[in-house]
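tool_call: predict_structure(chain=1)
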Amino acid sequence: MRALARSHLCTLQLQAGFSSILQSRSRHPIRYFGSGTAPACVPRVAVVGGGPGGAVAALCLAREGVKVTVFEAAPPRTKSGEGLAPNCRPLLQRLGLEHVVDDCSAHRQSAGIKSAWGSAEPIDQDFLYGLHGMGVHLDRLQFEADLAREARKSGAVWRSSCTVDGLKRTSGDSSGPQTWSVHSSVGGSEAASDHEVDFVLLCTGRNYPAWAEQLTDGTINYDLLTGVSRVVTPGIPVDDTFLVVEADANGWWYSAPLGNDRVMVTYMTDWDLLKERRRENPMSPLITYTDVPLLTAERLAWDRDNQAESPVVRRCGVGCANRVWGGDWLAVGDAAASYDPLSSYGITSAMGSGYYAARAVLDHFAGEADALSAYGYIMAKTFAMTTALTKDAYDVEQRFETEFWRRRHADDWPFGDDL
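tool_result:
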């Protein structure tokens, strides 16, 4: 799994470089709207989406005195767990959010990665002696609730169960430029309202609404990778806190311990291949015990009578928006670019892009002409480098001559076919 270790290191170096770029840019105070004797108007920003990227962006902007409103559609009742690699620690420290992951019993420390990748012989990559210490296995619902709480504490207005139905530019008056009118509704009711803002952050994730395509010109999906996740309670308690990653003929598995003696297990394969495997049993593959490879089976200590939560199926493939910035908007997190989970960069990317977006917005209001284009450059470079490192990791596994692996071993993966 050396390729994955190299991916973590290079991603950390990339983050450090971009962080220094943005730090050097934010030298000027925010240029508030208003002129002459008219009272200054504090910039107003709408954050559409309340996930990690949106919460971090809202938190950073609110701390700088910007008026921030977060529009969060009905939050999910369940969500797959996810891991924070140690390279996320510098960002958590900068944001003052280490307590969110360290002081919550719902999360568990991650000691490293145990992998059977490229060989049946397991390899351990221990985080303990690394530059930033342990990673974290997250309870995603708890983590996102805590990030939202921190954003509200910083002054952001958080509108829960509030769906944005559309955006419309409005004509500016003599004291300022054009603004946005954000049309929203609460809880699916007929009651609707409009909010006037000066800037929009699109933080809706992969499946953003149709109106957003007017900004991004749509999304390019490069592959069909799909994850099927379940949270289970193994027959034998899991003592180690390693993330287990294991390849098989038609995809790969990962499992991570959560709080309360639970384990999240996920199977990754392509959607078309998954449909073939599920024809006989719609719950396959996670309850097809004979398909579980050795490391994963040992961790879960499968018991046929064990009660597990219903599976969560989600798209996990590589993709990106055609455009991630405009003169008064930015796309953030998965709305801008989505990464293969093998990169371990998904949630770190969302939070990092939320931070970078906030810095870009502040620089924009401070009069930096190229602040928003610089954000677009950062997102493009991050996407290109992380995807190349993920390709390297897939190339390490050469044991299987199946369709899943043939696709990933192609020289032009993942950019061979737009889906």
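agent: Residues 1-28, 33-39 have pLDDT under 50 and may be disordered. Proceeding to next step.
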